[in-house]
Amino acid sequence: MSSSSSRTSTLFTIAGVTALGGLVAYAVYFDYKRRTDDDFRRKLRKEKKKAKSLKSDTEAAQTIKPEQIRAALLKVRDEALPTSVDEKEQYFLASVDAGERLCGQGPMFQLEAALSFYRALRVYPSPVDLVMIYQKTVPPPVFKIVMDMMQLDVSEPPASPKSAPSKPRSTTSEEGEETSPTRTGPPSETSSQEWDNVTDPGSQPAVQRRIEDYYDFFPAKHMNVSVHDGPLDLKGVKRKIIKAEKDFAPGDVIYKEEPLVAILDLDLQGQGTHCTYCLRHIQKGMAIKPDNDRLDSVYCSKDCQVKCNVQSQNLLFSLEPYLPPELDAGVVAAGNNEERDTAQAAFAKFIKSKGKSAPLMSARFVGRQVAMETAKMVPGHAALAELPRFVEDGNDYGLYDHIERLRFIEPTVEADEVTLLRKVLAAALPGLETAVNDEQYAMWKGKMLYNAYGICYGGGRDDKPPSTDRPEDQERTRTPYGTSRQIGSGLYPVSAYLRHSCSPNARPSFSNGTSELHLIASSPLKKGDEITVSYVDTTQHADETAEEARRRRRVELARGWKFKCECERCLKELDTKEVAAELELGVGRDESKVERTAERLAKGTAFPARPLDQDTEADALD
Ligand SMILES: C[S@@+](CC[C@H](N)C(=O)[O-])C[C@H]1O[C@@H](n2cnc3c(N)ncnc32)[C@H](O)[C@@H]1O
Q: Which residue's alpha carbon is at the smallest distance from atom 18 of ligand 1?
């Protein structure tokens, strides 16, 4: 496979798994129209009849030859694009309109229809979202032609593009290292940061610019930090690192960050001790307790209750309306409550029985996306669903641009997990379930798990039930206090990018007693310094030797985040010949070996005085 075509497939994989927006909007729009608009219902009945002739349409599409598609693409490429926002909007609307009309004129016009939709795609600010909308709305044979055109456009970029060329992308990092055009290494850790590598100049200018310029706008300036290319890791992946944008003294707050989603640990859900939304500790008798809440949620204030309801609770765990009133138009009255009730009960039972954070966190994340997308459809309603401000204002980057860049490790997803969630969504709004497929869900869950921080204040707790899972299946959050002391977990857009060090220069703090993360400098920082935090408890406990403490932290890192730490402290401590081998945790070449090696290392039997086992460490050594 050529490198350009592999990039193309990456583009489509990403387009297929990250964007939920178009689908939500479509499901809401469709449902709303179905319930409120007689014309729309009549049109639907007609469409159903027309669907009978779809088979012959598909056959006709198959007769469109690649040369015809190429010729059509060359024609579009020769057309100059509008430049002003207003002109683009006009062009977009006219192109979609023409596409729709041509679709209605039969198979003979499919190529022309696809061409029109393709024109619209060239100027649309969120082409990925638009592709998702097309997938749901454009007749399949026409959609296929649009996809073929995109594929061709990316794999055969024009020699000299007519539109303004996208910013040339440097192929070397700050340190002058080559960037890696495609991801290598085992599939157990992956990332949609391949977006950064989809850079054929001239093709899809809007897509290219969005990809390349993201880190000019993220993080927002008020966060006082910026994202840079870090060193290549063992798999040839260029990691991102965070640098300080100004000097900080120890104890300074570098930034404060609200979570995209935060949840209480499962054993605390329903106890009435902490706010379900902001995770604040609640004095006895002071909690707001809604009736008939599936998770026995409690809130510290009306404000938290309302935000939680709008952002995910109503959709997932209650029979309240979950759409903005302007869009609701009687969904609840429409009588799907019984189905909602059954679906929610089954999902809540599943979550409670597993006792794990990731399914609830992933579901709340889905709920939050739905809330954002539906709020966008009603001007003025966005306030409660809105995201914390982590991208600079004045551009159109949103949640998807961010989420698709986060790294993740492919998680285990139980058979029922997605099915039960989908049933909850379908019962709430028919069609909404199509926004969450298995692949998407696994990716979101992986991103939650891999990037979550443990939330812990006031020294944390010591009553968290110990996990009975195998070490490799235990949930791990980033926290210098230890996952066992946390009360909950949160996903933080900027903090997700921080790298680990066993002697970090910053620490996450939750000193206001909520899920708001304060990043505090723990050593003096100069503008341009990389900021690091500790992902694990790096202290030496009373019952362990220095060597045991070091092994514990390094094993945690290998198990949870699949890397062998080579921070200054580790390198300094690992200076004897015998323990130098401890650097090799099996990470890098084959991560399936991490657990076996980590287990032996934890027991102190990893480095017997015999040659390395050919099957374990030896293969993993560089
Ligand atoms: C959740 S991601 C952090 C995001 C990271 N900054 C990036 O963009 O790649 C965690 C991953 O970052 C890498 N990482 C973090 N700290 C590291 C360190 N000190 N040495 C090597 N790799 C590290 C590891 O691959 C780890 O699995």
A: 500
> What are the pLDDT digits (tens) for 484-542?
999 999 999 999 999 999 999 999 999 999 999 999 999 999 999 999 999 999 999 99
For residue 286, tell me if it sits in a domain: yes
Query: b vs e for 480-500, b when ≥16 Cβ sit within 10 Å of the residue's Cβ?
Result: bbbbbbbbbbbbbbbbbbbbb
End-to-end CA distance of the chain: 27
d(C-alpha 91, C-alpha 89), whole Å? 5
Helix (H) / strand (E) element for 421: namely: helix 415-428
Judge if 107 and 139 occupy the same domain: yes
DSSP label at 108? G
Structural domain boundaries enclosing 621: 539-622
Q: What separation in Å is there between the alpha carbon of 453 and the centre of ligand 1? A: 14
CA distance 95 to 81: 12
Residues 327, 245: one domain?
yes
> pLDDT tens for residues 559-588?
888 888 888 888 888 765 445 555 455 544
- Of 482, 507, 537, the domain-final residue: 537
For residues 300-317, average pLDDT: 94
Burial zone of 33 (CB within 10 Å; 0-12 exposed, 13-18 middle, 19+ buried)? middle
Residue 247, pLDDT score? 98
> What's the rounded Cα separation, in Å, for the pair 466 and 239?
33
Q: For position 352, what pLDDT does the model report?
A: 93
Q: Are residues 551 and 491 in the same domain?
A: no
Q: Is-contact 266 276, C-beta < 8 A?
A: no
Express each pLDDT in 200-211 by its tens digit.
334 445 556 667
**Of 563, 571, 583, 587, which is best to mutate to test ligand 1, by the most ligand atoms within 8 angstroms of its C-beta?**
563
User: Rg for the chain (alpha carbons), in Å?
Assistant: 26
Q: Which residue has a Cα nearest atom 4 of ligand 1?
A: 497
Ligand 1 centroid – CA 76 distance (Å): 42
**Distance from Cα 136 to the centre of ligand 1, integer Å:** 37
Q: Which of 512, 537, 562 is the last residue of a domain?
A: 537
Residue 182 lies in a domain: no
Question: In terms of domains, do 442 and 481 share one?
Answer: yes
Cα separation, 334 vs 28, in Å, equals: 14
Share of the chain above pLDDT 70, in %: 68
Q: In angstroms, what is the span from residue 499 Cα to ligand 1's centroid?
A: 5
454 and 551 housed in the same domain? no
In this structure, the answer to whether residues 573 and 508 fall within a common structural domain is no
Residues 530 and 553 in one domain: no
Asked if residue 241 belongs to a domain, the reply is: yes
The Å distance, Cα 189 to ligand 1 centre, comes to 11
ipTM confidence:
0.98
Ligand 1 site, CB within 6 A? 233, 239-241, 407, 450-451, 496-497, 499-501, 561-563, 565, 567
Asked if the structure places residue 113 within a domain, the reply is yes
Helices within 430-475 (DSSP H only):
438-451
Choose the most confident range, by mean pLDDT, from 84-98, 276-290, 390-404, 467-481: 276-290
One domain for residues 319 and 266: yes
